[in-house]
Amino acid sequence: MNVPWLSVPGENPPDSAAGTLAVCFAPTGAHGSTFANWRGRLPEDTALALITPPGRGTRVDEEPVTDMTAYADAVAAEIRALRAGRRLVLIGVSLGALLAYETCCRLLDAGVPVARLCAVAGQCPGDFHGDGGDVTVEDARAFATGTGLTDPELLADPEFEEVLLPPVIADLQLAADYDGSRSPVPHVELRAVWATEDPHVPEVTVRRWIDWTRGECTLLSVEGGHYAHQENPAAVISACLDGLPGARPSRRSVLGAGATAVAGTVLGLAAVPDTTPRASAAAPTAVGGISFEGDPTDPVGLAVAMIRQNTSNPGDGAHTQPFAQMLQGIFRAAGVGTEIVPTPKEGNVHFFARVPGSGPARKKPLVLLGHSDVVPAIGDKWMTDPFAGDIKDGKLYGRGSLDMKGVNAAFVAALLRHVREGAAFDRDIVVWSDCDEEQGPYGVRWFLTEHPGKVEAGAVITEGGWVLNQRDGRTPMIASLTCNDKRSLLLRLETSSYATHTSKPFTGQAVIRLGEVLDQLGQWRAHIRPNALSRQYFAELAEATTDPSLADALREMLDARTEQQRDRAGEAVVRLSETPELHNAMLRTTLAFTSAQSGYYPSIVPGTATAEFRAAFLPGADDPGRIVAELRSLIGNRAALTVVGNPGESEQQALDRLRGYLAVPDSDYDTDVFRAWQTAVRRTHPGVRATACQFEAVTSAVPFREQKVPVYGMYPFTVNRDMLKRMHGTDEHIGVEALRQGTETVYQLLAGLRTEA
User: Fold this and answer.
1) What average pLDDT does range 691-709 have in this prediction?
2) DSSP-assigned beta bridge partners for residue 490
3) The predicted structure's pLDDT at residue 243
4) Residue 272 binned pLDDT confidence (cut-offs 50, 70, 90)
5) Are 232 and 205 in contact (CB under 8 A)?
6) How far apart are CA 75 and CA 26, in angstroms?
7) Angle at 24 between CA 139 and CA 234, to 5 degrees
8) Nearest CA to 638 among 510, 522, 526?
9) CA atoms 295, 298, 304, 309: torsion sign
10) What whole-number distance in Å separates Cα of residue 752 and Cα of residue 684?
């Protein structure tokens, strides 16, 4: 007898080709009845499909399926037969998230569209490696009690245990044999949901789902524990089913309550819904859709509007078209010509605005290069909505406020102020908003390769140097314009031992060994080796600072004749600096640790653990190959250290490519643009020293510098240590008045390029 796996309670046969079919995949040891309390809570046009596979529920006497492929193939086949043209949503809880994922892949391969995939309280495919071995009754009993699947007292009843444990064993075996690395990454809208009180699958674990779709990924939270789908069904239903295109309202208003979208975690094709009150006397500008209704010469209003456009870049490029269209409206209203240039990724675009120059001796254009994409805001909890552009205590908060929508706003506001005044320039002034600066294949290098000659830049100004205060935190001290960038190399560590049951821990576990190696690398310090740009900056800083101890340490470092003297003085410079992390990065090679991963099952001690970190190099200082060799010597045989290059690249090729980047010459600062900047700083910050500098990070400047086009970097507003630490971090912000003053610096710089009309 061929018993169907899927059933739709109350429906036989499907009565409509419209609406939604929500297919629910149960957690470990459970079956369709775990979703029984969802009935009556669903939207009007949504039918619930429940799965009862062999060996579970009413089919407990059948041979259980323990193979993920067989499971997903069977469910996909029945969904195709049952779908009847309806919109498909696959919802998996715990282990069910993997089952839903694999079923989704099979449906998409068969040409069956899936409207949404929902992973609730589940680990992602990358957490499973197919090497779990046999699952025992003891494993199942420990899982059942440890996750709260049942009470320990019930398991003491042999008859109850005989009914409960076989399905648990079957599902644990299914997970133990599953190798997620073999799974393709589908293009599907994905919602990953964690429960706020779940001790088994915490937020950090659920966040890893963002790497398992090529479509939009939204991270949400609901109140409850690991079985929140039963404890708080309305919130989980809301998280999974809200916002489907064409869906009618739900029966119960409670459906929309209880699920919270994590601010800034809508990655890919959509912006975070605008639900935060926007009232702010300092930022009256409103954004409706892609329009801008404020004063385009007000940098604060512009910055707020830019922040509210969620241009988060998940790693393969951002959705920047609405941002570009907003800019297009601003410039067109001012009579400035614009162009939006698409890339191969849908919604991922470059924006250009051009103010033509005049006069008989027109020079090559000055490009004001900003990037519209921002890193996601999926770290620790923010004190404000990261995409609200809130102003509090004179600070503008939001993802990208510092990096680099504040700078973009200063560029646009300063230029449009000149346009409003009827100014003419001795060259074209081009505003370029790049879409893939943070990550992605379609950034500046791609554009210059695919569209040669479209931007014949004479000079470029982008993000870079800082304006720092004296120790009092109020008096501007030094302004820098960066003329070269550091470059970085991605490195991976892996420790290994053997996998075993958690009841038998042992000395030398992979996770512990990884921690020990990371601790050792965290203590490592490269020698102080300032390059020519850094030496020039620190010589100016010695003259600019009012702190005599810092000035003495700077001069001692610059005058040192031995490596030991320079290291000692350089460490003193870092210790005495008000921005020690910044100045440390300008003096040496640095290591930044970005990720660590291990483990795939709560009752297994994993056999491997990995971590990744970036080594950042100053041009003209350390050789990358020598540093890699030094780090390998430091950690010995306790971990394997590998260089992560581009696909298909050998370690030697990756190192040689990096050496080529590091060999690109500094931008010439004997230019009219550099001098115009120095004049502008003197006008807006009297008495402040304005100097060339080495940037501590990486920008989009390298492709221009390779063509011998001078590129200068500036953050024109004053910053402090707290602002710098929050760059790419939580509660990123800039000062409102500092932004206005920085915009005035940009305005004065452009004034130095004006000519008679």
Assistant:
1) 94
2) 614, 644
3) 78
4) very low
5) no
6) 13
7) 105
8) 510
9) positive
10) 13
Alpha-carbon span 238 to 557, nearest angstrom: 60
650-667, pLDDT tens digit by residue? 999 999 999 999 999 999
Angle at which helices 299-308 and 406-420 cross, to 10° = 130
Helix crossing, 672-684 with 736-751: angle to 10°? 130
> Is the Cβ–Cβ distance between 689 and 540 less than 8 Å?
yes
Residue 26 CA to residue 52 CA, distance in Å, equals: 9
Q: What is the mean pLDDT of residues 63-76?
A: 89
For 444-478, b/e burial (b = at least 16 CB within 10 A) is bebbbeeeeeebebbbbbbbbbbbbbeeeeeebbb
Instruction: Determine the Cα–Cα distance for residues 419 and 336; give it in Å rounded to an integer.
Output: 8
Query: Which amino acid is it at 407?
Result: V
In which residue are the tokens 């501007």 written?
476
- pLDDT tens readout for residues 86-126: 999 999 999 999 999 999 999 999 989 999 999 999 999 98
Distance CA 580, CA 569 (A): 14
Q: What is the pTM of this model?
A: 0.64
Residues counted in the chain: 757
- DSSP three-state, residue 241: helix
Spatial distance between the Cα atoms of 439 and 441, rounded to a whole number of angstroms: 7
Token representation of residue 331: 């410039």
Residue owning tokens 């629910």 = 24
CB atoms < 10 A from the CB of 359, how many? 13
Q: Cβ-count burial of 94 within 10 angstroms (0-12 exposed, 13-18 middle, 19+ buried)?
A: buried
Rounded distance between C-alpha atoms, residue 722 and residue 743, angstroms: 21
Higher pLDDT, 590 or 253: 590
Instruction: Quote the tokens at residue 484.
Output: 């070269």
Number of Cβ atoms within 10 Å of the Cβ of 407: 32
pLDDT tens readout for residues 669-684:
999 999 999 999 999 9
Amino acid at 412: V
Q: From residue 94, how far is each of 206, 237, 295, 700 by CA, in Å?
A: 10, 15, 50, 41
- Per-residue tokens: 513: 């060994």
Alpha carbon separation from 686 to 354, 677, 713 (Å, rounded): 31, 13, 21
Which tens digit of pLDDT belongs to each residue from 595-651?
999 998 889 999 999 999 999 999 999 999 999 999 999 999 999 999 999 888 999
Give yes or no for residue 283 having a pLDDT over 70.
Answer: no
Strand partners, 612: 492, 595
Nearest to 460 by CA among 659, 303, 677: 677
